Each structure stands twice: as structure tokens, then as C-alpha cells.
Amino acid sequence: MHTPATVAHESADSPVLRLKRRLEALVPTAELTDDDAARIYALAYQEFNLTLYAQALERFQVLLVYRPLDTVYMLGAALCLQRLRRYGLAAAAFGALRFLEPANPGHRLAMAECQLLGHERDPARETLNEVIDYCATHPGHEAVSARAQAMLDLMRPHHESVAT
Questions:
Q1: Considering only CA atoms, which of 79, 142, 138 is closest in space to residue 113?
Q2: pTM (2 decimals)?
């Protein structure tokens, strides 16, 4: 229910209202066809590549309403959030991806990057250690493990990283 306060707060051009109008336009069909999803994804992909991250994010969000567990759409949204410097939300999206695709340690690594960019050093350290532990027991992820270790090394104070 819209009160005068909420109507005044939400301008006609706000991202929330634009997304709501787009969703409402889709709702009468009650489903998203594969062709519709492919067209929306193509637009989101193109917008992402043009660095139009906010617009691409809106499209990925629409796709996720209809297919909330689609990892391609979730990854697109997570990357848009990261590029928009919404690091907490991006970390949460990458965190969800790590459960949907547990065999991909890259999601954990991206989560740690967002945590670091959001100045969450302790959670980032824990996530990086998870990445290294996972990679140690699952061959084939040496590059991810090396990157996680390098990030951990960079997090140490200078005096700790110098060999005695």
C-alpha cells in the first residue's frame, strides 16, 4: 500500500519503480518462455559489456525472479553488483553461488574479493582459508588456490611477511 510518504519518496524514475514496471509487464503471462529469457539475457549481457551495470543488473534481477536458482543469471547479477561497488550484496550473491556450485572455488574467491573491497578483512581471511582448504583436497584448482594464497599474503602486515 502506498502512503503519501512512500509515493513522495519513490520518484517516477527510481530504479525500484522501473524494475517494478518491467516485472508487472511480464506477470500477466505468468511464466517466462525460454525465448523471452534468452532475449533478456542477451540484453543484460550486452549492457554488462557496455559497462551499463545498473541496467544489466535490472535485467538479471528480472530473470532471477522467474529462475531464482539459475547460476548464470545469479553470476551476472553478482558481477554487476561488484562493478557497482555494492560489495556486501555482491559477496552475498557469490556466497549463494558457492552453495549452488560447490565444486567451483572461484565463487568463494570472488566472495573474498568483495569482502576485502568492502573492508571486511576478517570474513575475507576466513573465506580465503576456505578456498585454500578446498583446493588442497580437490585437484585442478591450483590457480585459484595460488590467487587466494597471494591475497592472504598481501593481507599480512609487512613485518609478518618478511622471512626471519
A1: 79
A2: 0.76
Name the H helices within the chain.
4-9, 15-26, 34-49, 53-66, 71-83, 87-100, 105-117, 121-137, 142-155, 158-161
Using CA atoms, how far apart are residues 17 and 108, in angstroms rounded to an integer?
32
Written as one letter, the residue type at 15 is P
Cell of 43: 540484453
Tens of pLDDT along 25-41? 655 456 789 999 999 99
**Dihedral of the alpha carbons of 116, 122, 123, 127, in degrees to the nearest 10:** 80
Distance CA 76, CA 56 (A): 8
Query: Exposure of 90 by Cβ count < 10 A (0-12 exposed, 13-18 middle, 19+ buried)?
Result: buried
**Cell matching residue 125:** 581471511
Give the total residue count for the chain: 164
Sign of the C-alpha dihedral computed for residues 75, 76, 77 and 83 taken in this order? positive
Report the SS3 class of residue 117: helix
* Contact indicator for 92, 100 with CB cutoff of 8 Å: no
